[in-house]
Amino acid sequence: MKATPLTEQQIEFYNTNGYLVVEDLISPEEVQQYKALYDDFLAGKINVGTNRSDLGADLGNSEKVENITQIMWPSDFIPELLVMPYHLRALAISKQLMGEDSEMDFDMLINKSPFTNTITPWHQDEAYWLNVPDKRATSCWLSLDYATLDSGCMWFVPGSNLREVRQHAFAAKKGGALSCNASEDEGVSVELKPGSCTFHHGRTLHYSRGNSTGGNRRAFIINFRPADMIRYEREHGFDHGKQNAGNRQLQNDEFAK
Q1: Chain segment 169-208, per-residue pLDDT in tens
Q2: Which of 36, 35, 46, 44 is nearest to 75 (CA)?
Q3: Tens of pLDDT along 78-91?
Q4: 17 phi and psi angles, rounded to 5 deg
Q5: How many Å apart are CA 203 and CA 131, to the nearest integer?
Q6: Where are the alpha helices (DSSP H) in 80-186?
Q7: C-alpha torsion sign, points 20, 23, 26, 29
Q8: Which domains does the chain carry?
Q9: Contacts of 33 (CB under 8 A, 6+ apart)
């Protein structure tokens, strides 16, 4: 199973709206393989040290489990992921959306545990990142479960990729999730079945509700940008939390308030 080439209409939709839905990026059988690996990460069978944190520690109410589990760079711990179907197909699509110089910048897992009901605040990914000269960037958000309104599917503000980055601040305490002013009234929700995904631009406003269901909401995210910009980031000491996922920073003072 290979990634089906995008149509001109799909690419135009992405460029205009800042996001794109791609159905059935991986097969049901492949979903089960990824779920097994994902659950090994969640259960701690794969020790990731400080690459694991609770993105919703100061936003949720659960003290028994992580409200929003974030694991940075899973491919550092399971290198085989880089040559498995998801990474290869998502890279192929990113090249269609951004150009042939697109490469993987980082990957991460974000899970919302059952009944934690913790939102991911409205934000633009660019506010988390180093201010690079070439702003092309896209993130693939793959759902391994049914991502619904109640479990925390993604919401996007169409066209926000074509406007400026809004001012951001830490939603609770410094080092936690970033937030900006936006609302569901501006956005559209995108429910997904397992194995389907969205791509969104680094400047696209997005958020998700909390998970109020009895199941996990497992998402596997890969970010892509031009290879030259990845080198630029690393030369300036920026690696997307490779050694410490919990140490989040507002990278550009221009976006601070």
Answers
A1: 998 776 678 999 999 999 999 999 999 999 999 999 999 9
A2: 46
A3: 999 999 999 999 99
A4: -105, -20
A5: 12
A6: 85-98
A7: positive
A8: 8-255 (2.60.120.620)
A9: 84
Tokens of 24: 């059935």
Which residues are paired to 38 by β-bridges? none
The pLDDT value recorded for residue 257 is: 44
Using the structure block, give the residue that is written with the tokens 């003290």: 63
State which H helix or E strand residue 61 sits in: none
Alpha carbons 119 and 155: distance in angstroms, whole number: 11
d(CA 170, CA 157): 20
Tokens 């936003």: give the residue.
59
In whole angstroms, give the CA distance from residue 111 to residue 42. Answer: 9
CA distances 117 to 38, 99, 194, Å, are 20, 38, 20
Give the DSSP H/E element, type plus range, for residue 82: none
Which portions of the chain are predicted below pLDDT 70? Answer: 1-2, 60, 62-63, 174-175, 243-257
Q: Which residue in the block uniquely carries the two structure tokens 């990634």?
A: 3
Q: How many CA atoms lie within 13 A of 181 on its CB side?
A: 5
Residues 188, 201: Cα–Cα separation, whole Å? 15
- Please answer whether residues 66 and 118 qualify as being in contact, where contact means their C-beta atoms are separated by less than 8 angstroms: no
Residue with tokens 């934690």, as numbered in its chain: 116
* pTM of the shown model: 0.93
Residue type for 163, please?
R
3-state SS, residue 75: helix
Strands 19-22 and 197-201: antiparallel
State the Cα angle at 226 between 75 and 131, rounded to 5°: 95
